[in-house]
């Protein structure tokens, strides 16, 4: 059977990202149609509202103006995740922090990791990248004269999830002729071979397609409730299984940090994301180590005001992913595919990655779909496992001992085998590019370097020649000078956002 009709179930960020990826890939194919069916009464969850730099390439590919994106979605720039109090305060000081930066470390050529290991006199990010000082100074990653999607430094975005979904929807419908159907699915019909045959809706009758994409969120109506694809639970490795999310207004003159703030507490951590007119704050915690009442009390303490005065949501988080992501004639994306807590903004990252992958490899018929499924499931399982390891690394490297939560995170039985092997290897030698041999590493060398040495991982120092040490010192000074230059030349974050809102940026 040829694949001519594609149906996406569910809107939100996942559904409309998929619609744009497919629309772009099929824009010259008149024989294939894409429709998106969503219920008009299901709200967007919007956990985290943060992205990673790869989203810039997708938005540019979709033909979306960065200026309009920033104007319409309350966007702010994100150059880093600033991790606060993830290390023991007695050893590393109260309010200890490090940056997981979005610009490449050691941009002038020489890898300065060994130089840092030999001295450890300043924060790793501060030595290897000018972006550390730019973030701390509250500067933007670009100037108004930069073209759209270009900048002096690497960056991603913070955004309003509901407005982002609407922007993606408008683009998919207008530019790629995606059909938008508002209807509630009442029943899913199956074929004799177990494939999905059609969706029975409340106001559009029976809707059928050749290929279905499940973006129905945690409900997972197709991949879970209908096709019964098993779930791979990861709660024995990642403990934070609940979040309290709240939106707090900010003043129009208040400075906007150009990074996500991730502050650790005794049973998890707090995200703090500043948009143009509000902060999105989330208290992430493990229900094994803290109850809801204490979590609310701790969040109120963090905010300096009673959280009960605002509308807040308590969100249970089922940690893990589907054993198969592409099963029969159904693909799961977004929260239907899995969820691993919002640390490092992995939800949008994995959705964008998977949607782009399937759009570029869309099979022409059911036979090709079956062949693709094995490869796709293998790739996505590899990607998800590496993400589990990267998130776990933040917890198991911490030397905090002020609660059972942090002590238990260092229990070897909770650390994935591959991560444990890598950490043992990196005791003697700092990570190198060859350690990340797959093209499907969602987090790569630079990401690991910033986190490992931001958290003071004790890699042994290698012997270096006097000439090499002098070269490192010269380059370290050059990076420091570049940082000073950028701090002086780049605009304050809010100032740039206001200029973009007024004037826009030059299209590429």
Q: What does it look like?
A:
The structure is a single chain. This protein is of the alpha+beta class and 508 residues long. The protein has a domain at 5-75 and 158-232 and 321-383: FAD/NAD(P)-binding domain (3-Layer(bba) Sandwich). The protein contains 17 helices and 21 strands. The chain has helices spanning 12-25, 54-62, 66-72, 89-92, 113-119, 124-128, 131-136, 161-176, 221-226, 292-303, 346-360, 366-396, 404-409, 417-428, 445-454, 466-489, 493-503, and strands spanning 5-9, 33-38, 76-78, 80-84, 97-101, 156-158, 179-182, 185-190, 196-201, 206-208, 211-214, 231-233, 242-249, 260-265, 268-274, 278-285, 312-316, 320-322, 326-327, 330-332, 338-339. The strands form 5 sheets. The protein has a 7-stranded mixed sheet with strand order 5-4-14-15-16-13-17. Strands 7-2-1-11-20-19 form a 6-stranded mixed sheet. It has a 3-stranded antiparallel sheet with strand order 8-9-10, with no helix packed on it. Helix 1 (12-25) links the parallel strand 1 and strand 2. The longest helix has 31 residues, at 366-396. The relative contact order is 0.18.
């Amino acid at each position: 059977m040829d694949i001519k009709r594609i149906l996406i179930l569910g809107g939100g960020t996942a559904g409309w990202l998929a619609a744009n990826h497919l629309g772009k890939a099929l824009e010259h194919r008149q024989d294939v149609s894409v429709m998106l069916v969503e219920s008009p009464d299901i709200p967007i969850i919007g956990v985290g509202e943060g992205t990673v730099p790869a989203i810039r390439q997708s938005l540019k590919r979709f033909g979306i103006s960065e200026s309009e994106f920033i104007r319409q979605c309350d966007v702010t720039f994100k150059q880093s995740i600033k991790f606060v109090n993830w290390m023991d305060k007695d050893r590393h000081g109260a309010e200890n922090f490090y940056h997981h930066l979005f610009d490449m470390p050691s941009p002038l050529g020489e890898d300065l990791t060994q130089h840092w290991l030999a001295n450890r006199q300043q924060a790793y990010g501060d030595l290897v990248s000018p972006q550390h000082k730019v973030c701390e100074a509250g500067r933007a990653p670009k100037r108004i004269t930069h073209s759209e999607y270009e900048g002096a430094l690497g960056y991603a975005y913070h955004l309003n999830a509901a407005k982002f979904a609407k922007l993606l929807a408008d683009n998919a419908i207008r530019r790629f002729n995606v059909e938008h159907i508002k209807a509630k699915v009442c029943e899913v019909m199956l074929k004799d071979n177990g494939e999905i045959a059609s969706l029975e809706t409340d106001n559009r009758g029976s809707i059928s397609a050749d290929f279905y994409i499940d973006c129905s969120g945690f409900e997972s109506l197709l991949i879970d409730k209908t096709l019964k694809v098993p779930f791979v639970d990861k709660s024995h490795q990642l403990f934070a299984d609940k979040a309290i999310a709240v939106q707090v207004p900010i003043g129009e003159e208040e400075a906007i940090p150009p990074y996500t703030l991730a502050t650790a507490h005794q049973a998890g951590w707090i995200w703090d994301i500043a948009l143009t007119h509000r902060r999105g704050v989330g208290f992430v915690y493990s229900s094994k180590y803290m109850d809801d009442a204490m979590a609310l009390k701790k969040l109120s303490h963090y905010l300096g005001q009673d959280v009960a005065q605002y509308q807040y949501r308590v969100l249970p988080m089922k940690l893990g992913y589907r054993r198969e992501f592409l099963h029969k004639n159904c693909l799961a994306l977004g929260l239907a595919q899995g969820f691993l807590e919002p640390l490092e903004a992995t939800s949008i990252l994995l959705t964008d990655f998977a949607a782009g992958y399937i759009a570029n490899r869309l099979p022409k018929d059911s036979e090709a779909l079956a062949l693709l499924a094995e490869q796709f499931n293998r790739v996505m399982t590899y990607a998800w496992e590496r993400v589990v390891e990267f998130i776990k690394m933040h917890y198991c490297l911490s030397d905090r001992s002020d609660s059972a939560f942090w002590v238990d995170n260092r229990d070897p039985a909770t650390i994935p085998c591959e991560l444990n092997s890598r950490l043992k290897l990196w005791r003697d030698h700092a990570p190198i590019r060859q350690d990340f041999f797959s093209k499907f590493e969602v987090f790569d060398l630079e990401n690991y370097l910033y986190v490992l040495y931001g958290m003071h991982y004790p890699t042994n120092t290698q012997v270096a020649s006097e000439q090499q040490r002098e070269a490192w010192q010269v380059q370290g000074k050059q990076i420091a000078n570049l940082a000073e230059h950028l701090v002086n030349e780049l605009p304050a974050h809010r100032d740039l956002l206001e200029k973009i809102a007024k004037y826009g940026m030059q299209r590429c």
